[in-house]
Task: structure prediction
Amino acid sequence: MEQSRLWLPYAQMRTAAPPWKVVRAEGVRLHLDDGRSLIDAVSSWWCAIHGYNHPDITRAVKAQLDQVPHVMLGGLVHEPAIRLAQRLVEITPAPLTHVFFGDSGSVGVEIALKMAIQFWRNQGRTSKTRMMTLLKAYHGDTTGAMAVGDPVEGMHHLFAPLLPRHVFAPSPRGGFDAPDNVVRDDLDQLAHLFAGHHEELAGFIVEPLMQLAGGFNFYSPAYLQGASKLCDQYGVLLIFDEVATGFGRTGSLFAADLAQVCPDILVLGKALTAGYSGHSATLATDRVYDAFLGDDPALAFMHGPTYMGNPTVCAAALAGLDVFFRDDYLARVGRIQTLLRRDLLPLSSPKVRDVRVLGACGVVEVHDPGSLIGLQQFAADRGVWLRPFDRYAYLMPPYVITDDDLRQATAALREWFS
Ligand SMILES: Cc1ncc(COP(=O)(O)O)c(C=O)c1O
Result:
């Protein structure tokens, strides 16, 4: 079997059901080799916000391929990277002024962590080498990123002996609309940790407002506002990992906008490159950037992935951003949120522990992961592609999804739990 040479992610290769083969993808639909077509309700791990094969983006990619498919950024530059950096600075919160490209979300996180540590080191603060992070966090699959993910419940706990030990704060409670007293309690605990560890802390990394792959925990903007003040008070850089939340997923362009908090370092990925190829952008403020300037070459930031700023993916990103604003994607996300709330929030079943919706993300959390076994096939039989994991069945559709297609996806979930 041709599949047998292919080692698939997060899969027990002995027992996993054979994967389905996609032969064409158009709009929100994945066309399979057996003639079926499925609505992709999870945007290919949340990156395909435009759906597939968007004519404007595909055209831009093809044009770029004919000019410069790739060139290193070491000592050379090109128009797509210059323009994309400029564009990202324009659309992110004003204090973020410089852009460092990487080749995946995980690498973008690694860059942010290294940037924070070297920021302090360049100022002689060599003890600041650890991170504050949150339980339920997920920041990627590379070593540095794994180390700031939940060390107990997270999927990487078996690698603990390999990983540097960071400081973990409790996951914020109470949801997006958490009552003041809950946020205050959480911030008190955070303050306690800052007080005990700030001498060794370089940064506090969070997925702002939405912790996703570590447990779909939504939390309050007030928590981020309090955390930002603590970072200032204790001299710790605030890092937002918006690899998943960036580009509209929360309902605002960035979670930073919704929370009205600007981090010192911001990581973007996934939807950044419109679902065409992996890439990341790590943005920094003047304060961070300036700490790397000086006459001593050793102050320079020591990082440089081979494919950083690849012209073809930059062209996809630029075309994707044009479409995003031209077609008012934030209005579409608002519409998706309304429909997800209408269709999912009333869902009630003894199996269901909680249902929550924020922006273009609807989550059904169950008590027992066993009650999601078979859901993927059940949804596929109803024309919908889902990928539930652990205790979570979720919808994070492309923003171009129509009301009817979204209803088909929510109906599959409702029927499963009915
Ligand atoms: C918040 C967050 N950060 C980082 C990553 C890693 O991104 P990538 O898979 O592109 O390495 C992910 C992936 O799911 C993510 O959700």
